[in-house]
Amino acid sequence: MSQYAFYYNADKCIYCRVCVLACKDKHNLKPGRKFRRVYSGCGGSWDTSSSTPSPDGVYSYSFTIACNHCADPACKKVCPENAIGKRGDGIVFIDRELCIGCGSCSAACPYNAPSLDKETMKMEKCDFCRELLAEGETPACAASCNMQAIEYGDIEALKVLHPEAVQQIKPLPDPSQTKPSLLITPHRKYIEGDEISLMNMPEEIQAYEV
Amino acid sequence: MRKKELDVSRRNFLKWSAAAAVLSGGLTACGSSGGEDTIVAGGGSPQDKPDALLKAGKWVTVPCPDCATYRCVNRAYVVDGIPVRQKTDDSHPYSYDYPQFRPCIKGRSMRWSVLSPARLKYPMKRVSWKPGGSDFHPELRGRDEWVRITWAEALQHIVSECNRINSEYMALGSGTSHPYYDANYAASYGINNAIPSPILNLAYTADMEPRFLNALGIGTLPIFGQNSTGAWPCASTHMVGDRIEATKSDRITVAENSNLIVQWGVNPSWTKFGSQQTYRAAKERGCKVYNVGPWLAPGSAAFVDEWIPCRPGTDTALLLAIAYVAISEGLIDEDWVNAHCVGYDHLHMPLRDSNNFPILDGNGVSVIEPSGSWGPGNALTGEHHRYWQENFKDYVLGTYDGVPKTPAWASAICGAPVNKIISLAKDMALIKPMAVISGDAPARVYHGGSYAQAFFAIGMLCGKGNIGVPGGRLDDPGLLHFGSYQYFSRNDRFISGWYLGLLHEQLGDTLRSPAFPVAPAAPVTTPATTAGDRPRNPKGFISYGAIRQPWATLYGNYQANEYYGIGFAEVWDAILTGEHHDPGHTRYNMDDTELLPGHGKKKVDIRAILKIDITNCVNQVVNTNKAVQAMRSPKVEFIAATDFYMTSTLRYADIILPCISFWEHEGHYSFLNPEIMIGNPERVIAPMFECRADTDVDAELCKIAGVDPKFAAPYTEKQAMFNALANAYVFKTDGTTKEPLVKFTANDIYDLGVDADTSPTSSLLTEGRITYQEFKEKGLYQVRMTEKTKQNEGWLKDLVENGTPLTANYTTRFTGTETGKVELYCMKLKRYHDLVYSFGTTHLDPLPKYQADTAHGYEATQALNAEYPLQCYSVHPYHRIHSQRSDNSSVVELCDDIATINVLDAQRYGISNGDWVLIESEAGKILRRASVVSTIMPGVMQTTEGATARYNYGTSGFEDESIDIGGNANTLTYSLLCGEGHQAYNSVVVKISRWTGTPPLPQYKWEPDLPRMASE
User: Fold this and answer.
1) Nearest to A58 among B296, B411, B889 (CB)
2) Which domains are assigned to chain A?
3) Chain centroid to CA B539: how far?
4) Neighbouring C-beta atoms of residue B490, cutoff 10 Å
5) Predicted-assembly ipTM surpassing the 0.90 threshold
6) Quick one: which of B306, B365, B536, B903 has the most CB atoms within 10 Å?
7) Do A201 and B94 touch (CB under 8 A)?
């Protein structure tokens, strides 16, 4: 059994957010809704011991994230209507015929992936652009990335290509919760345990307006 | 009232949403002919079904219109005439040396901009405005309601009001007895035309004049200056001979060869989109990358190793300290510098005559006084003695002024830590080859000219091993194109007819300026009325025939007998006070010892304002509060303007006219990126509502005024696009010879319906690398670079390798320098200062000297109990091109206009990330959310330019008209005339406080900025 996964290179990401826009374009999402988000954080401090403050390890990094098509999807477990399925290739999808828009999946997902369409009261989320995949095309996000910082494929193959990749950098949750199909190369200046401030405005990283 | 306004557009919007919903699939009504009034709820989910309907349309290639950088590839999927999805080039695999030019968020969201609910739909008139000049309620501009009128009514108002206002004004006196007559221009313009026009052309360039007024002999009052290039052009033109083409390794050569890249005052990931892969490729090869500036932009994370913080307006101090380290530690080859520059040390000051002109030898090269006759200990005294002390090296070392420009000296000014200055200096002096790439931004300050001088001076100091060497590069404005701007470059990949660059130039006039003649042997016939026959503005200077001015700027070439009009920064004052400084204003000389003759202040009487183009001066010229006052001046009887959206300028007009967007023009080709020629031979979408092209508006005005409409539009859009395409040449793989890019058949010409020379003697149309049909099908042609077509050229390379003097070459539009060398000490700058420079304000020295800006710069924040303790500057927004796209909620949701401040300042003022803050300068107040980061310097804050000013409208609960909740950076900037008329956007002093009133909604939730319609 294979498992589709996304790989993101936070060392290359330029926080351009084209992946978010391309995803919104592909899925025709109105303002306020997104399946994909880019987090941007900064670290380091300013040394004020001399009269001219000096930057001490100041850097920033960004990375994109959407649904991680988890091996153990929390959304699927909590759905009261069994509307969430996982395909043989690992893609987690929502069956809109069954969805009642209750929001349980959104509450359960530690990655903030499901997005409510308030007009139809159906939950939607990244489906790996599965109809594009079926036609041999690339998911919209990966095809849009100017830095080629988004890759996709079977998770085991991606691990071989990117042995340094991890499953958690700030502000992501502990991967043991849902076993995300997610690989990230951290920024070269990022050290685990660094104190990081998120630079995003709130609406920029929300999946939908609550 | 608003509801009615929305109703008008309802049918069209329903069509769009229907098509969009259909494409998203799974919709019950999909594909049905539900009728235009069927409301199609967005019931579809993309997940439910494959996109069978995706097959219903076609992909259309369209160049990105937005920024002046790479012109990335957009493809729009058009179903039933409506663009419903976008993608980029996927026709070949990606590699940095043969990239897909994937667009940024601006290009990628174009369909939402074109189909925006904020689009203007038909001509409108302000309710309380009446023609005739007696009942027009100027005080209600920006507050009034609007009524729909026909195009015929709107155009008639424009022609008759302009005629009326001009007649009444001219009747104030005859010839020399007219109260506004100015004898200074009588010789150039004639007696009557030495009376300035009462009609202000509020557009940036002379190419965007209302032609009907020229044809009628009325003309317009122009404005001039540099809003983009800051103070670069004058300084670098005279010092190096060319602003841009200093020395250039192309993009790929930099990626493959540079061992050090220094990005100065530039954020390439966001505002030079397309160059970031090059930097990344260089970095992955092992090249070290510095970025210098007040802010470590998030996008630089992909390639920057070291950030050198530097306060706005203090870059010159930092550059001088780099020179100090390089000189005092003996890291540079002084003989090399002296061989290619004048003015480096006291033994290499150019010999000059009594009028400050250099004395040249028979080869046009500066004569240097033989060593021994100058220098310490010789008998020369007085002026000559002082002159040789004024060399660069002694200035840097502080030999005569007692101020060595040490890292400690610079650090106290610019804020870069001393150790970082030293390490940067050593790297710049020792690591070769080095690419130093500056943005325009550091020169957009009050003393910006010195920055441009210092930049080139340090580039020459470290020049050995860089200039002429693959991987060496020294340039502004940091685009990393092959040979930089197409139209300036002699290294063009494509030799094109004309630069079809900025949006306002997509108007069907490829041959508009004889200054840029069509390159080799144009196989195109032109209509009877050629660009050169078109009537010039009788009342002011235009760019025709002048060297290298696509913009009506001085570029260091001021001519005293020409009337340039009003400097941008003074335009609002001129409307309000009736006078402005002429560039040749009377003032003292550089040493304040001698009163120089000049034109003095000039009186004007502005009664009407026209803006028939895509610029947006009310928002984009400094001091928006004053702009609003000026637009409400009771003297101004009539204002008409065109645009896509209700911009700040349109908001204060009396008649507004809706324009078509880029996608609605009949095709467009872009040449800006030398690696790719890209175009859409067809429209993406038909013109929406009643929108028209700007040139059509001008042509219609010509018809009503009774003059030939070809004055406004010599060619149809299709003809212009054909001309451009037919005149495109491409280098062969040998890197030296060229061939036409596209070949046409007789059928192609017939189908296009264009005028072309198909005579047997002109075989050029039938030659070309690709067929027109191939081009049409793909919409682009991209060059794959080879070893031989890579570029490493430039004027300085010729100087360094072959000793070729930097002498003017008018064919290639190279200005050259007076001495034939790079002038670290530039006499022409001194003379130019005495002739024109600065309107008596800014001081431009022959040497690159640091000048403190105690009124608007860092020094102003350091005064005891300074009222404005923070420096504020503005960056180009990533998500807009200037003020365009303010109304695209899908983008604003991701990239709002935020105020970025340092964590230390945030603590000091009690501000947390996401708080609304009030930012106040002497000029105005804006309200923004704060982004609290470690990546900007303490004491410096940043906003994004181009946000649409909103005073008391758009969001309920904000009745205080003094606060701009739209957050326009120019609400904070001053009316500050400086340099050659550049706008000093980039250093304002401000104070900041947490907003305790009702917070506005996030901006993406704001209502579209639509005109308020009056009830009928």
Assistant:
1) B296
2) 4-48+56-68+128-205 (3.30.70.20)
3) 25
4) 15
5) yes
6) B903
7) no
